[in-house]
Request: fold
Amino acid sequence: DEHTQNMRLACAEFTNDIKCISAEEFPVLPSMEDESNIDINVTNLREMIDQVVFAAAVDDSRPVLTGVEVKLGKEKMSFAAADGFRLAVCEASHTASDETTEVDVIVPARALSELGRIIGEQTDPISLSLPSGGGQILFRINDVELVCQLIEGKFPDYQPLLPDGYKTRSVMATDKILAACRAAQIFAREASYAVTLAIRSGENDEQGLLEVSANAAETGSNETVVETILEGEPIEVSFNVRYLTEVLKVIDTPNVAFETNGDASPGVIRPVGNDNFVSVIMPMHVSR
Reply:
């Protein structure tokens, strides 16, 4: 009933009355027709969303950290997300026309997650547009359009967090270290999800061992040893195992590298053979 703004749904013995509001109050959505569009490779976009959204903050105490910094240049695009304890950065090649404006915005991580679900297994290019009114971003793939509000503010400069070198570098099989972290997480739940990575030399100079361990007073303890190629100094450092697991799940290369400059320095995780992704995780201070 348009006068009472009430909708009645009836089926068999069930009757439902639902209060509605006028359709005129629904926000006016922007259109791509009058805007300049930027086409993005859908495979790159899907992979980049998966590799960064998990690192965005879930609480809104610092709104810019609940979003993903999206940059599109003439030859490259980059996504970055951080929550104060970890950082994920992903890059990909991107070809833009000379008339295309470079993009530097903060998109809510939840909106990008939804976009990833919409994309699914699609292979057609996706179009991106920034409506002239400002404050919004519009994505279109086939017959689906997704519009979301941009987050105002400046994303933190994360370049200083990316170390130029390392004192310890450990290379191991991605599936082995992921399995070790998943096993340790069962026991680490009662200990603020803290796990210890102990990297030491093996029987020869190149071969090394990485021990992932977790202890909980009520549950018990877990230790898993993973073979690794060690470069540099042995080290023992603790991290939140959830952060380790989430980043390892999105790495699709057979091997992964862990780098650090000390037990009080951030840990850097890189896929071996892929320079387009890096994750930085702050260590935890655990009493021995």
